[in-house]
Amino acid sequence: MNWQAVYPILPEIILLVMACVVAMTDLWIPGKDRVVTYCIAQASLTVVALAQLWYFWDGATYYAMQRMVVADPMGHLLGLFATLAMMTTLVYARPYAAEREMLKGELFTLSMFSLLGILVMVAANNFLLVYLGLELMSLSLYALVAMRRDDTGATEAAMKYFVLGALASGFLLYGLSMMYGATGSLEMNEVFKAIGTGRINRAVLVFGTVFVVAGLAFKLGAVPFHMWVPDVYQGAPTSMTLLVGGAPKLAAFAITIRLLVEGMIGMAIDWQQMLVLLSLASMLLGNLAAIAQNNIKRMLAYSTIAQIGFMLLGLCPGVVSGNTVSAGNAYSSAMFYVVTDVLTTLGTFGMIMLLSRAGHEAERIDDFRGLARRSPWFAGVMAVFMFSLAGIPPTVGFYAKLAVLQALVSTNVPAFIWLAISAVVLSLLGAYYYVRVVKVMYFDEPADSHPIEGGRDVRILLSFNGAAVLLLGILPGGLMQLCAQAIVRMFAT
Amino acid sequence: MPLLSIAIWLPIVSGVLLLAFGRDDRADAVRWAALIASLASFAVTIPLVTGFDLATPALQFGEKHAWIARFNVWYTLGVDGLSVWFVLLTAFTTPIVVISAWQVIEERVNQYMAAFLILSGLLVGVFCAMDGLLFYVFFEATLIPMYLIIGVWGGPRRVYAAFKFFLYTLAGSLLMLVALIYLYYKSGGSFDILVWHRLPLTLQAQVLIFFAFFFAFAVKVPMWPVHTWLPDAHVEAPTGGSVVLAAIMLKLGAYGFLRFSLPITPDASHRWAWFMVALSLIAIVYIGLVALVQHDMKKLVAYSSVAHMGFVTLGFFIFDAQGRGNELAVSGAIVQMVSHGFVSGAMFLCIGVLYDRVHSREISAYGGVVNTMPKFAAFAVLFAMANCGLPGTAGFVGEWMVILGTVKANFWIAAAAATTLIWGAGYTLWMVKRVYFGAVANDDVRTLRDLDRREFAMLSILAVAVLAMGLYPKPLTDVMHVSVVELLRHASVPKLAP
Question: In chain A, whose CA is at the least distance from the CA of B155?
Answer without folding.
Answer: A443
